[in-house]
Amino acid sequence: MTLFSLIVALLLEQVRPLPVRQIVLDPLSRLSTSLVERFNDGQARNGLVAWALVVIPLVVLSALAYFLLWLVHPLVAFAFNIAVLYLTMGFRQESHFFTDIHLALRMGELDRARALLAEWRGGQYYGASSGEVARLAIEQALVAAHRNVFGVVFWFILMPGPSGAVLYRAVRFLGEAWGERRDVEFGEFGRFAKKAFEIIDWLPARLTAASFSVVGDFEDAVFCWRTQSMLWADRASGILIAAGGGALGVRLGMPVHESGEIVERPEMGVGEEADADYMQSTVGLVWRALLLCLMMLALLVIASWVGA
């Protein structure tokens, strides 16, 4: 059921992309804002309490609903799995930005590509060259593919019903909404949320990077992973970008023009300068990595059937 749920959810998401902001992000944002207003006194302890009030009920209720629906009929539980996966993962949640940037660069519309990149990542890129735009888009796509698909898939497989997918999506949201805030008045409230996401994403990020390595240039991917990833500010993102750049044979990282300044960044990956062609190669790399994961899961399912 796990494998078939994943396949159906992926196909459904390709046919009809989820309006993720209206259905998922906006309700979570309202809940997050309410908890911050009620609990935030700048202390990490209250951040832990608020985090638990969001994550634990969502995970427990999703697991309980799955088991109750299984008692009604396995097909109903199967449909529930698909529905939750549809809400928590998907290539298309952010890939339209990547596709539009790719098309703009192909058409020579650099200003439009910069504007799309700013809308996707935040910041301003009016001084960025086409190579810098392609580089930043590839980096964002590699990380987004992991967080929107591979991380969700890992926890979905690991935990009963769709509770793992719910866990990853909720913890990721709070890690970004609370853990990334640096304003003084917010204090240490988001420290636990940030650490919790780092913990649950530790193994999935490395498995995703390993998948990129297997379906791309394995030797360069592993070399970049080992020698470059620790130079990136966020270690998990550094692993994904370094391994992805090595697998593609493209140079990522490096200084870029952002918000009117030149932002110094370490070089990641190896090979040629990024351009629109490498953006197309990135799409192929992510799809091959996903097919590899599905094939491995299928082999496990077949092995369990044979063993039974």
Helix/strand/pairing class, anyone?
A: mainly alpha
For the biggest sheet, the summary is: 3 strands, mixed
Straight-line distance between termini = 16 Å
Strand content: under 5%
Low-confidence stretches: none
Percent in helix? over 70%
**Topology, number of strands:** 5
Arithmetic mean pLDDT: 92
Q: In which order are the strands of the major sheet placed? A: 4-1-5
User: What form results from the Cα inertia axes?
Assistant: globular
Oligomerization state: single chain
- CA gyration radius, whole angstroms: 20 Å
Give the total of domains: 1
Query: In DSSP terms, counting alpha (H) and pi (I) runs of 4 or more, how many helices?
Result: 13
Query: Secondary-structure element sequence?
Result: HHHHHHHHHHHHEEEEEH
Describe it for me?
The chain has helices at 2-15, 20-39, 44-72, 74-88, 92-106, 110-121, 130-158, 163-177, 191-200, 202-215, 218-228, 235-248, 276-307, and strands at 250-253, 256-258, 261-263, 267-269, 272-273. The chain has 308 residues and is mostly helical. The protein has one domain. It has a three-stranded mixed sheet. The protein has a two-stranded antiparallel ribbon with strand order 2-3. α2 crosses α8 (163-177) and α7 packs parallel to α13. It is globular, with a radius of gyration of 20 Å. It starts with a helix and ends with a helix. The model has no long low-confidence stretch (mean pLDDT 92).
